[in-house]
Specification:
With 422 residues, this protein is an alpha+beta fold. It folds into four domains: 3-106, Rossmann fold (3-Layer(aba) Sandwich), CATH 3.40.50; 134-205, Dna Ligase, domain 1, CATH 3.30.1490; 210-331, ATP-grasp fold, B domain (D-amino Acid Aminotransferase, Chain A, domain 1, 2-Layer Sandwich), CATH 3.30.470.20; 334-422, 2-Layer Sandwich (D-amino Acid Aminotransferase, Chain A, domain 1). It is 32% helix and 27% strand. α4 packs across α5. The model is unreliable at 1-10 (pLDDT under 50).
């Protein structure tokens, strides 16, 4: 085959476009899944500080440029693009805009915007039959100067556009509200986003009860369940760090159906019709209360649990659906779970002891430490990353949970304090 023939053959293959922050941990698994399916990849990112070759060789843009969508469309014209995917909350709206311009299957950009802006999502769902907390949007500085709300305590204060529980705090009175506002103001000052996202917050009533995570896939507006995760730790605040995810859920079938219907109704209210969704709900007074939903896959290394539940990696599922390829998902014959190892104190990570002992426990599949020794670790609400992950697989969900708790009990996290000079 000569060079011209080789070029024609390679460009005739379908191509998938990922729009991704340069620091995304989701991008690597997506690229590996595309390579497995023999699908070409184009990565659109800011390109800075990345060691990922696909980012370095991809298309570099400025996500803050108002014309970035048009610039991307120009770069992609004439290529055999099967789909455009945003890997993270930061890029799902941009991916929808590009897909719309290219005439590809897509969610409307305004629908995608609901999934990354908590205030817009609450206002949208307030017009539906979905149960949501009472809420108010406040200008942060005014709330600091006058910490008064019409909502009863306890309340939860949230940034408009952050994920992973960062900046989310429960407050029980006006003094705690003012303290939380000042703390959140410092977090937002150091974060990205536009002026509105940095200067406004969402305040809503606290909904008690256990929390559950739903992972699904939309096709022409119809929702398919991939997994429902129990969160067996009662998340009561003041911060809301994720810990245990266990699947299959131990809820009865009637309550699982209520969760499915709530997520389906939220998708319809937002106008979402295509692609992955990750939702968080709580159960209180035998009712499903909708917390939030993202138009992307589950975060962290938790996506590995979908492989246990369906027999296929989550990223491959998303790519196959987007590219119109066959999906053959298998019913799970076992339970699986993950512990997102919490960061409990601020300091420099020196070492994690007990990993070998913990990994030898029955049902433990793997233990991953994500933070390198000598690096700073920061707990919630300021922190935005987990120390690592423990995975387990067993015949029952109870065995999985017990194994994860035993493994965590064998770990010792050794840190040293930060020294501030000057």
């Amino acid at each position: 085959m000569n060079d011209i023939e080789h070029t024609r053959a390679s460009t005739s293959r379908p191509c998938i476009v990922f729009i991704s922050p340069h620091s995304s941990y989701r991008l690597g698994p997506y690229i590996r899944a595309a390579e497995k399916l023999d699908i070409r990849v184009i990565v659109i990112s800011q390109g800075k500080y990345s060691l990922v070759s696909a980012i370095a060789s991809g298309i570099h843009v400025n996500f803050n440029d108002q014309n970035v969508a048009a610039q991307i469309v120009t770069q992609l014209q004439g290529r055999n693009i099967a789909t455009v995917l945003g890997t993270d909350d930061l890029t799902v709206v941009l991916a929808a805009q590009v897909s719309k311009s290219l005439g590809l299957i897509h969610n409307d950009p305004s629908s995608s915007q609901y999934t990354r802006r908590k205030d817009l999502a609450r206002a949208c769902l307030a017009q539906s039959t979905v149960h949501i907390p009472a809420f108010e949007k406040h200008e942060l500085q005014r709330l600091i100067d006058n910490p008064v709300s019409a909502l009863p305590y306890p309340c939860v204060i949230k940034p408009l556009a952050m994920s992973g529980s960062r900046g989310v705090m429960r407050v029980n009175n006006e003094i705690e509200l003012q303290q939380a506002c000042r703390r959140l103001q410092a977090i937002l000052a150091d974060a990205g986003g536009d002026d509105e996202e940095r200067s406004n917050v969402l305040l809503e009533t606290y909904v008690p009860g256990y929390e559950y995570a739903y992972e699904g896939l939309l096709h022409k507006g119809r929702l398919q369940t991939l997994a429902l995760f129990d969160k067996p730790d009662l998340m009561e605040g003041p911060f809301f760090e994720e810990t245990y995810y266990i699947t299959p859920s131990r809820l009865d079938s009637a309550m699982q159906e209520q969760i499915y219907q709530a997520v389906q109704q939220a998708c319809q209210a937002y106008g979402l019709v295509h692609g992955p969704v990750h939702a968080e709900v709580r159960i209180h007074d035998d009712q499903v209360w909708f917390m939030e939903m993202a138009a992307r896959t589950i975060g962290g290394q938790c996506a590995q649990l979908i492989n246990y539940a369906t027999g296929m990696e989550l990223e491959e599922i998303v790519i196959r659906q987007a590219a119109g390829m066959a999906l053959d998902l298998q019913a799970a014959h076992h339970a699986a779970g993950v512990l997102m190892i919490p960061t409990t104190e601020h300091g420099l990570l020196r070492r994690v002891e007990g990993i070998l002992e913990a990994s030898k426990l029955e049902w433990i599949e793997d233990i991953e430490i994500s933070i390198r020794e000598g690096y700073e670790i920061v707990p919630l609400p300021e922190g935005d990353s987990y120390l690592g992950f423990i995975f387990a697989k067993a015949p029952t969900a109870a065995q999985v949970e017990n194994a994860l708790r035993q493994a965590y009990a064998r770990l010792t996290i050794v840190t040293s304090p930060l020294l501030h000079l000057g």
